[in-house]
Queue: 2 jobs
Job 1
Amino acid sequence: MIDITLSIAAAVAYGVAPLVYRPALQCTNQFRAMSVFSTYSILLGLLLPWSGASLDGVLSAAAAALFGGVLGSWLYVTAVKIGGAAVGNISSSLYIVLLPIAAGKLALIPAALLVLLGSAIASSYDVVAKRGAFYGVVAAFVWTGSIMLYASAVRALGPGGALFTRGVIVLLATLLLGFNKPLCEAWRLVVGGFIDTFIGFGAYTSAIFYGDYVSATLIMSSYPLISALLEKPFMWRRVAGALAAVAGLVLVALTNK
């Protein structure tokens, strides 16, 4: 039960965060934003429990950091920057379907498709931003592989060790890639990064540690609905999307019984 609660907390945090930091992306380089976010991973890694040292775990965390934390996050942040929070979230949510297939958990595919359908319905008004959606779709493919790597790192190093290792590598890479790039409205990045990384990614990492990473990811992946429901003006299609996604999450719970 604790893994489900943590996954829901992560979904709420991920849904709210881009609404806070997106305005700063209009005049801030994506790598500069990511370097701010990664500092929260390092801090939280020092606070959460470690399971010990493991070369395999460190290598998995490093690969997940470069593949998902740098490349995948850059693609996602770019999708949000170009297309908005709803476009970035819905397009990148393709990994919801890809992950159960890659993990061999085919029984979860119907639930994944329902969550994805709900996100699509709720965010459909905004998907005309095709360029932003393209970056989000590519991010989904990148994240599918990196999630599996990160789950291995969490099992080997514990939530603290995985977060800390990933955070250090992402910070070093983004500081290098974002050197001398523009930064503005830093307060939005600080607040949005705290919600996104300290609360959202921290809760998700703990959910992986205590439960099944595929199920935790599917529950967490309802975050596009949070963004869509909070954006104004209110639209009933978002409510319909939320109902479809909730049905998918119920299926996740029933499948794992």
Note: The radius of gyration is 17 Å.
Job 2
Amino acid sequence: MSMISFPLTAQWLGHVREFADTPWCRDAFDELFVRHGWATPRQDGGPAVGWMGPWPLGDPADEAWHVVLGEDPGCADTDDPSVACDEPRCHEDSFLALPLAYFAEGESWGALPAQVVVDEDAREEDFTALYDEAARLLRTCLGDPLPRARLLLDPDPDRQITWERGKSLVTLFLGENLHHYSVEDWIGIEVRPRH
């Protein structure tokens, strides 16, 4: 099996907290992504970040790492990008997921950014050990997790731990990558508004 992993550093733990603390509206996420250099401001007043798919965390030409974005944040009752609301129907499929590792048989990963670790001979124990280490780091950063909570990104993950932070849920998960037709398993951190 082959595994690629993205190290969960202190800086990225800080970004996870920042994602969770950001008001769930388009303007707030645009400002956050622009501030960190993951998006450029649009001159036409349009959105800086494209939701509904992978989004590079840097210049795509440099094969940057990425996050997976669900539906646009905001309120379904208005087009105003500065509005965040607490209505569950407005956020049912809105999330941000930071992949920490992908694990697959015979996968050719292509060009990867420098910070990504490649292990062509990874075993399942190596993959789950990475999950366990991420869980330890997140417990240190976020405190005690909640009792089991449903992860909407994958309704039946192999493993998951969820924390509540303000108006958001932060979930560490391990399961099939449904966004890539389940050809690999992945470990990631999902942030979504709390319903």
Note: The first strand starts at residue 2 and ends at 5.
